[in-house]
Amino acid sequence: MKVVIQRVLSSSVSVQGEVVGSIGPGMNILVGITHEDSEEDIEWLCKKIVNLRIFDDESGVMNRSILDTGGDILVISQFTLMASTKKGNRPSWIQAAPPETSIPLYQNFLQRLELYLQKKVECGIFGADMRVQIENNGPVTLIIDSKNKV
């Protein structure tokens, strides 16, 4: 499982012109799922995400987590994070999990994240053609791959 985490002042996602998810200060998270992902990946990532100290403290140092700030999270499914660009110029999606595998994992990811955040996590619509508005804060952007824990 790969995630791209962006610290944001605000973020929203629209499908067919209708806003389906919106947050103020917090994290915009893009998530890609591979056929090798499991509940263990979800557990590890969710704990890592809510405890990441990427928000400024009173001294302007990134020393606070989203749990400390009370910020919100918007999650967007994005199979293109699993792209392989090693050969040629057309990305290969062979590592992206098919919907029958990725949808349950994505839903579990959202539920587990809500459990650790202790509030609702906003999200897009899995597999939809989405438009995402992001007002980056910093910018602060991190990429985390659950297969690279060490």
Tags for this entry?
globular, six-stranded mixed beta sheet, alpha/beta, 8 strands, D-tyrosyl-trna(Tyr) Deacylase, Chain: A
CATH class: Alpha Beta
Backbone CA Rg: 15 Å
CATH fold-level assignment: D-tyrosyl-trna(Tyr) Deacylase, Chain: A
Gap between N and C termini = 15 Å
- The shape is globular
What fraction, in percent, of the residue positions are helical?
10-25%
Taken together, the total number of domains comes to 1
Q: Characterize the main sheet.
A: 6 strands, mixed
Order of helices and strands: EEEHEEHEHEE
Q: Provide the CATH superfamily.
A: D-tyrosyl-tRNA(Tyr) deacylase
Counted beta strands: 8
Number of helices, counting only DSSP H or I runs of 4 residues or more: 3
Low-confidence stretches are none
Structural description of this entry:
This protein has 150 residues and is of the alpha/beta class. It has a single domain (2-145), classed as D-tyrosyl-trna(Tyr) Deacylase, Chain: A, CATH 3.50.80.10. 24% of the residues lie in helices and 37% in strands. It contains 3 helices and 8 strands; from the N terminus they run βββαββαβαββ. Strands 1, 2, 3, 6, 7 and 8 form a 6-stranded mixed sheet that branches. The chain has a two-stranded antiparallel ribbon with strand order 4-5. β6, α3 (99-117) and β7 (122-123) form a beta-alpha-beta unit. The chain starts with a strand and ends in a 5-residue tail after the last strand.
